[in-house]
Amino acid sequence: MKKLLVMAIAGSALAVSCTQKGIADGKITKAESIAQGKVIFENSCGKCHDLPNPKSHTDAQWTGIVNAMAPKAKLTDAQGTMVYDYVTANN
Ligand code: HEC
């Protein structure tokens, strides 16, 4: 059920992607952050290597990886948080 909800929201992520900075103001929900994170992840994290499998790392490992990779992918802090929310919702 949770997965289905996330997928349903992910379908509408493109429509809300112009509101990315909303999370910094606390205006977007965790589910929206996960959905936007999926889009950012798929667009930004497969450029230099294959898209990593979220299941390949623990939450703690993802913290360090996103900190290291977000600058490589030229993401803002808010976008990095969304990617983190997405991968740790699916690992
Ligand atoms: C500019 C190129 C580039 C981009 C964009 C990039 N990466 Fe990487 N990534 C690398 C390189 C180079 C390595 C291997 C060396 C290293 O760990 O720094 C790597 C390694 C990794 C690893 C393996 C780390 C490990 O400890 O096994 C993961 C997972 C990863 N990247 C995730 C991501 C995610 C998530 C994003 C999007 C936010 C991303 N990468 C974007 C270049 C990139």
| Terminal-residue CA separation | 16 Å
Bound molecules: heme C
Strand content: under 5%
Envelope shape: globular
Number of strands: 0
Encode the helix/strand succession as letters.
HHHHH
Count of structural domains: 1
Overall average residue pLDDT: 84
- The radius of gyration computed from the alpha-carbon positions, rounded to a whole number of angstroms, is 12 Å
Residue stretches low in confidence (pLDDT < 50, at least 5 long) are: 8-19
- Share in helix: 55-70%
Q: Which structural class fits the helix and strand makeup?
A: mainly alpha
Biggest sheet statistics: none
Tally of helical runs: 5
Q: State the oligomer.
A: single chain
Keywords: Heme, Iron, Metal-binding, Signal
Domain Cytochrome c: 32-91
GO molecular function: electron transfer activity; heme binding; metal ion binding
Protein name: Cytochrome C
Summarize this structure briefly.
This protein has 91 residues and is mostly helical. The protein is 62% helix and 0% strand. It has helices spanning 2-11, 13-16, 30-44, 59-72, 77-89.
Describe it for me?
This protein has helices at 2-11, 13-16, 30-44, 59-72, 77-89. With 91 residues, the protein is an all-alpha fold. It has one domain. α1 (2-11) packs across α3 (30-44) and α3 packs across α5 (77-89). Bound molecules: heme C. Heme C is lined by residues 44-45, 47-49, 52, 65, 68-70, 72-73, 75, 83.
